[in-house]
Amino acid sequence: MTAQTGPFQLPPLPWAENALDPVISANTISFHYGKHHATYVKKLNELVAGTRYAQMPLERVIAETAGHPDSQKIFNNAAQAWNHTFFWSCMRPGAGGKPSGAVAEAIERDLGGYDKFRESFIKAAVDCFGSGWAWLALRNGKLEIIALPNAGTPIASGSTALLTVDVWEHAYYLDYQNRRPDFVTAVVDKLLDWNFAAQQLESSSQPRKAA
Ligand code: FE2
User: Fold this and answer.
1) Distance 105 CA to ligand 1 centre (A)
2) What is the whole-number distance in angstroms between the Cα of residue 47 and the centre of ligand 1?
3) CATH code, residues 26-89
4) How far apart are CA 100 and CA 195, in angstroms?
5) Among 30, 36, 129, 172, which residue's beta carbon has the most beta carbons within 10 A?
6) Which pLDDT belongs to residue 210?
7) Could you tell me the distance, in angstroms and rounded to a whole number, from the CA of residue 99 to the centre of ligand 1?
8) Superfamily of the domain at 101-204
9) Ligand 1 geometric centre to CA of 86 (Å)
10) Which range (36-45, 62-71, 159-168, 198-207) has the least confidence?
11) How far apart are CA 86 and CA 203, in angstroms?
12) How far is the CA of 160 from the centre of ligand 1 (A)?
């Protein structure tokens, strides 16, 4: 973990930098986490210094700055800080494949089953024009697959995020160059952690703590 000056910290990775190899190399994680993610946290701390945002939980900073042009820079860096921490937790070595339990039932009910989820999620990630994120999210009690550009995050609109894949070029270019479909397919089939998604689904049904 890199020490940060300011209220927001760069959380440690949930696994070693080389743990996702060969799907994602240690080199990519080193730059993606150690440079890109760390820089979003650093810039966020610089931007909120002396403002009311410095006392807020990260999720509240995102909610309060979303859609406001005068706080776009704070939103971008706050959302990117949150999105990356969430993304790391969405992946686990040796994971991937079909979910079970309540998540599998929700995918069957709302998205037509795992095979349709897989096809639609990969398509959303591949078709996301430019930089952005593909999400599996819960909105008003229903699962949906969405692609959001740039620093977009479903939590800005009150949805619950279950899983995401980062499709900014920095996420895959060192390992896959222009082959975004190969990167996304490999992450879905070999790394997506359905246990983590199940935890998000479970906590979405609990009463929310006051922010
Ligand atoms: Fe990224």
Assistant:
1) 30
2) 20
3) 1.10.287.990
4) 9
5) 172
6) 46
7) 25
8) Iron/manganese superoxide dismutase, C-terminal domain (3.55.40.20)
9) 11
10) 198-207
11) 15
12) 20
